[in-house]
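Researcher: Go.
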Amino acid sequence: MAYDYAIVHLKYTIPQAVLLTLISRPLLTKLDLYKTYTLILVAFFATLPWDSYLVRHGIWTYPPDATTGLSLFSVPAEELFFFIIQTYITSMLYILLNKPILHAQFLTNKNDSSPKARRIKLLGQLLMIGCIATGAFLIKRGGEGTYLGLILLWACPFALLTWTLSGYFLIRLPLVNIATPIIVPTVYLWIVDEMALGRGTWAIESGTKLGWRIWGSLELEEALFFLVTNALIVTGMVAMDRGLAVLYTFSDLFPDGSDPPPLGLLAKAALLDPAKYDMKRVRGIREAVETLRKKSRSFYLASSTFPGRLRIDLVLLYSFCRVADDLIDESGTESGAFTWISKLTEYLVLVYGSGTQSPSTHNASALVKGSFPEPARPALELLPVELLPRAPFDELLEGFKTDLSFNWTDTKKRALRFPIKSEEDLELYAHRVASTVGELCLRLVFHHGETKLPNDRETILVIAARTMGHALQYVNIARDIAVDAEMGRVYLPSSWLKEEIITPEDVLRDPNQPKVERLRQKLLEMAFKEYDRSREIMSLLPPEVRAPMIIAVESYMEIGRVLRERKGTTLQTRRGRATVPLWRRLWVVWKTLSTER
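Model: Structure:
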């Protein structure tokens, strides 16, 4: 009995697995572990018969002084462990890199795919079929191409299956997110394999291999083996993510929202005919994700930590709020802006009904098609109104009316109207444009959460969400003083300006003057007081969403911390707005997940 092969694991595979686990641990969910363990089982039982055949027929050999002697179907225990550890390492890297991605946006079918994508999928299928035929030929011929033929005949049918089912989906995914978890473990295992072959830990018998070396002792067949196995692991993860995306996106077809889902349900979703996909909904999700990515990097990052269907509905909610705000802000005239508010109000009346009329989906769809520009339509049509109360939306529109109050009082533009005259006005505005959104987010959490909360706890959380909304909006105003000034708006209370002996017009002329900076810090002080009042109450949230909700809050409050830390200094800006460095936003996510999960 010897431990040479075991030492390879102790030195080269287990440490990598441990490192990836430590990095990924805060991000890992039950669903991630479910996918990983499922794939490990599939990889183990798919590889065991093939590996056993290689050993029994003398293609792979293991010197007696390199293994412990424990085996299953002639395969050494150390080799069996390799099946597990390789799958685990590659899966962890894939999960880590793909955590930010909302896979629902990449669902597609033949009609939605470009001619180029159709050609790529067809070429891939033909390539796999050709490799299968080549593998069969090499095995039948025997001799030096036997091992290469066995690799092709074993791996390519699996590859053909996953490519046929998920090819269009794979093509749409970001290449770096797929290529990296294939290439990095492959190159690393090439190095490990080269050292192991050089030491004689295992060997490929001559007469069944081509004898071509990539470098050193690394055989062509071994290099290909690690490449195709890592590719199979990654495409297996992709296939599961595609099935999950179908489950989460089309709740009308799959009402069961179990997380993680039963394997049978996941398989049913993965095998669903793509022709049945509601591509209008998928395209709407794509547009919502793009809007979120461009308009709110903090929430875009935070959204990646929310579970399946909740994440999709939160993105759709944000998209509606953002589109409504843009329609009003970009209308060009005061009358045009109020027209959009009127149309949005009419839409809410139609989808929710009123005291005198019942909800009318048909009339709401007709209004959207006839009165709203095409880019805005998906945000309205996909808003999950059946899960949300109407009142916060009405208050949100009232907040938009406050924004419209910042207008010139005459054609000579000698003066402005400034509706935020006191702290009470500021709090009312923050309640309308931010607390309402916080409440709507909570309503989605209550609906989708696995843990159902008693009514009194829900009430406490809603009150805390409204308070936290004040904090987030105050940070938003503090960040955007200069940007708002360019639009002729000053959200700092006029009573505060009077105490500093300046006017709103002074802020418009120079939003970076010391007096304005003092008021910025005063506003931030208010923001953190409101934050402190509601932060502890977030511990009452259901466990499965507590960390993601805290991340959403902390990612935004980090902007306030940056503004406080860099008081009086030049700030890193993006479109005139102070920003938080990426490393710091990632640290907020990792730290929060580490402490709250």
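Model: Residues 220-249 form the longest helix (30 residues).
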